[in-house]
Amino acid sequence: MINYTVSHGLPEDFDLDEEIKDEITEEIEELKDLMIEYRTGLAGAVIEAHMKQHKYEANVVGSPLDN
Question: Does this UniProt record's set of keywords contain Coiled coil (predicted)?
Answer without folding.
Answer: yes
